[in-house]
Amino acid sequence: MLDSNGQALIAMSPSAPLCLLPAMANRHGLITGATGTGKTVTLQTMAETFSSMGVPVFLADVKGDLSGLASAGTPAGKVAARIEELGLHGLGHASQAFPVTFWDVYGQKGQPLRTTVSEMGPLLLARLLDLNEIQSGLLHMVFRIADDAGLLLLDMKDLRSMVQHVADERQRYQTQYGQISPATAGAVQRALLRLEEEGGDRFFGEPALDLADMMRTDEQGRGQISILAADTLMHAPRLYSCLLLWLLSELFENLPEIGDTDKPRLVFFFDEAHLLFDDAPEALVDKIEQIARLIRSRGVGVYFVSQNPADMPDSVLGQLGNRVQHALRAFTPREQKAVRAAAQAFRPNPAFDTAEVIGQLAVGEALVSFLDEGGAPRMVERALIVPPQSQVGPISSSERAAIIQASPSAARYAQTVDRESAYELLTARAQMLQQAEVALARKKAAEQAEKDRLKEEQRLQREYRRQQKEQAQNDILGNILGSVTRQAQRTITNTVGREIGKSLLRGVLGGLLGKR
C-alpha cells in the first residue's frame, strides 16, 4: 500500500513506518529468509504497492499462492490481527484486487509464454542444455552459420535441423568456422531431445512475448502484474532460471536508457534466485552481474528472492540496495556463518545485535533496510511486514480461467504460428537436392541405357556382318565344291564308261575269236 506521500509502505517498525522510495526502487533489492518465514507475503505486498504506484510488475509464482493478487482479500485470523495491530485501517489499508495477467510456458494456467531460439541466444541456451565447453562452442558456431546464411532459428525443429545441417556439411564449413565433430553434434542433438521431453519445446516458437504486454496499466492507472505460473516449471529448474534471465536480457536490450526517474518503468521479482547461480559458468555470472548493474538505467528494478544471501555471488549482492531479511535458522557452523554474513550486509543499528535478531524473528517479521533519498542504505530496522490487500492464497481454477480469457492479449498468444524459417528452408533445400539427385540418377540411367542400346546395336550389326561374310564364304566354297564334285563325277563317269566299254569289247572279241 501507499502512504499519504505516495511512498511504498512495506513494513512498520515500533518507531515509524518503513517506506521504499519510488525513486530508489530501481536500485534493486533482496528478499531472503528460511522457508515459512513470510517471504511470499512480503513479495505479494511489494507487488501490490508497485502496482498502486502505476508500475508494472513481473513475478514468478513458484508455489501457486500469488494468484490471490487477482482477488480482493477477506482478512481473518492472523492477517486481520496484524492489520489491527499496525493500525492500517487508519492509513488507508483496504481489501482490493489488482490487475493481473497470467502466463504459463505450458499454456495451461496462463497465456502461453514463448520466445524464439534466436532471442534466447547461444549462451543461455548452452546453460539450459547443460552443455560442456566444446558443445557450447559448436552451438555458438551453429548460430553464427545460421546468421550468415540468413536462416531464422525460431523453434526447436529449426535448431535441430540446423545442427544436423552443419554436421552433414562440416567439410564445407570447418575451414571458415572451425573443426566440427559429428560426435559433438550428436551430443547437442541428444541434449535438445531431453529439453523437448521436459516440455522446453513449447517455450520456443511464435508468437513470441511482446514486452509491451507486460508493461501496461489499467484504467485506474495501476500497473499490470504479470504472474508466471512456475509450480510445474520448477521441475525443470534450468528452464525456469534461463527463462527469467532471458526476460531480464530482453528488457535490458530493448528498453531505451532513461537514467534516474521518479519511479521504475517495471519491477521484476526473481523467486528461487539461487537456481540462477547453481553451477553457472563464469560467462553467465558475468552477464547477470552486467545486467544487474546496468538495467536500472532502463528504469527496471530487479528483486531477488531466496533463502539466504549466500546463494548469490558478492558481485551481484553489491548491486542490491533495498533489503528485507526474514528469519534464518542457524544450527550448524555453516548456517551460523551465513547468518553473520547476512547481518554484515546491513547498516548496523545500535539498538540491537543484527546477527542475533535474525534468528529471533517471527513469521511476518523482518529486518528491513531501504535506500534513502541519496541512495545510501538506511539503518536496519526490525519491523512487521504490512499484510497484502489482496487475497492471501490462490484463487480457484474457474476464476483463473475467466481472467485468462478476459485478457486483451489472450487471442494474440492462443495459437502457435509456424512461419518459414530454418527448418522449412533446409527441408526444401534437402528436397531440391534429393530431386536433383533423382533427376541426375535418371539421366545417368538413361544415358547408360542409350549406351547399352548402341552397344547392343553395334554387336548385332557385327554379328549380321559376320553371318553375311560366313554365308558368302559358304556360298563360294559351295560353288567350288560343287564344281569339283561335278568334274569328279564326269571324270569318274567317263572313266567307268570307258572301262565298261573296254570290258564289253574284250568280251565280244573274245567270243568271236573263240568261235573260230
Describe the protein in words.
The protein is of the alpha/beta class and 516 residues long. The protein has 3 domains: 8-114 and 208-413, Rossmann fold, CATH 3.40.50; 119-198; 420-516. It is 50% helix and 11% strand. The chain contains 16 helices and 12 strands. The protein has helices at 39-53, 77-86, 117-129, 133-149, 156-168, 170-177, 182-197, 237-254, 274-277, 282-294, 314-317, 333-344, 354-358, 397-406, 410-414, 422-515; strands at 8-12, 17-20, 29-32, 57-61, 100-104, 111-112, 225-229, 266-271, 300-306, 322-325, 365-369, 381-385. A 12-stranded mixed sheet has the order 2-1-12-11-10-3-9-8-4-7-5-6. Strand 1 and strand 2 form a beta hairpin. It is rod-shaped. The chain starts with 7 loop residues before the first strand and ends with a helix. The model has no long low-confidence stretch (mean pLDDT 88).
Throw out a few tags for this protein.
single chain, 516 residues, alpha/beta, Rossmann fold, 12-stranded mixed sheet, 16 helices, 12 strands
Superfamily (CATH H level) name of the largest domain: P-loop containing nucleotide triphosphate hydrolases
Walk across the major sheet and give the strand order.
2-1-12-11-10-3-9-8-4-7-5-6
Q: Radius of gyration from the CA trace?
A: 46 Å
Broad shape: rod-shaped
Q: How are the secondary structure elements laid out?
A:
Layout: E1 8-12, E2 17-20, E3 29-32, H1 39-53, E4 57-61, H2 77-86, E5 100-104, E6 111-112, H3 117-129, H4 133-149, H5 156-168, H6 170-177, H7 182-197, E7 225-229, H8 237-254, E8 266-271, H9 274-277, H10 282-294, E9 300-306, H11 314-317, E10 322-325, H12 333-344, H13 354-358, E11 365-369, E12 381-385, H14 397-406, H15 410-414, H16 422-515
Parallel strand pairs: 3-9, 3-10, 4-7, 4-8, 5-6, 5-7, 8-9
Antiparallel strand pairs: 1-2, 1-12, 10-11, 11-12
Helix pairs in contact: 3-4, 3-8, 4-5, 4-7, 5-7, 5-16
